[in-house]
Amino acid sequence: MTGVVHTFHALAFVENFSIKELAAQYPEARRTHAQLTFSPPGGGTAYLFAFGALVFQDVGQAGREGEILRLRRTRPALTNAQVSTDTFTVREEAGARIDVVAGTLVLDEMGPERAAMVALTVAQSVAMEYYERIIDQMFGETDTLVARLEKTGTMPISTRPLHRFIGAAIGARSEVLSVLHMLDKPDAVWDDPGAERVYEEMRSELDLVDRYQALELKLRGVQEALGLLTDIARDRRLVLLEVSIVLLIVVEIVLTLVRH
């Protein structure tokens, strides 16, 4: 196997990053509205994405550990647990056609724009793993609620927990959309046709589109089921309210008759 091999290491955290706040702590970094790009002291390139992902390109283990420690010092509230990690390899060969071969992206020339495309898609992939776990958990909890309804034929009177659950599902959907940017291609693809090819190959290799659609379907199913459960709980409350009103009227009539 010939050519220059580049390795991308990606980590995703629970918290999102404020690029504006981080920029003050990384004065050497190149900044866009959604990411910071800088070179660690030991060489290579690091990418910090607003959706809580950190990607290293050709950075050794010591360099990665040093930059993670630096990030934690910058963000003291950052949780110790990393949501997910991933590694992706790119092989640079003169004259090669841009393609993914046996899980490795092969291209004729790397360049900063193409490296940024690889970093972005790998970051999206590791971030998506977090949302896949969250939404799978929501899906399981929804199944539990539906099974309870099937068994008992009724819902709890209080709808507040369901409302909070629905809000969490809507929030998760909004975050997934903001992370993946599926509807808009990065600006760099318009300047370099090769970067667009890299972007498309990476999205296909990491199954970003299919995974996103699966998340959308699960979220839509969760929201629809929770909406129906909320309607059932609300109807039960209305019935109880009507029964209470009737009982109050009966009590008032009985009291009136007793007085007379």
Strand portion: 15-25%
Q: Given the structure, what is the number of helices?
A: 7
Largest sheet, in brief, is:
8 strands, mixed
Low-confidence stretches: none
Layout of secondary structure:
Elements: E1 4-13, H1 19-25, E2 30-31, E3 35-38, E4 45-49, E5 53-57, H2 61-74, E6 82-92, E7 99-101, E8 104-107, H3 111-152, H4 160-180, H5 188-191, H6 193-205, H7 208-259
Parallel strand pairs: 6-8
Antiparallel strand pairs: 1-5, 1-6, 2-3, 3-4, 4-5, 7-8
Helix pairs in contact: 3-4, 3-6, 3-7, 4-7
Task: Tell me about this structure.
A hairpin with a 3-residue loop joins strand 2 and strand 3 (35-38). Helix 3 runs antiparallel to helix 4 (160-180), helix 3 packs parallel to helix 7 (208-259) and helix 4 (160-180) packs antiparallel against helix 7 (208-259). The model has no long low-confidence stretch (mean pLDDT 81). The protein contains 7 helices and 8 strands. It has helices spanning 19-25, 61-74, 111-152, 160-180, 188-191, 193-205, 208-259; strands at residues 4-13, 30-31, 35-38, 45-49, 53-57, 82-92, 99-101, 104-107. The longest helix has 52 residues, at 208-259. An 8-stranded mixed beta sheet has the order 2-3-4-5-1-6-8-7, sandwiched between helices. It is of the alpha+beta class.
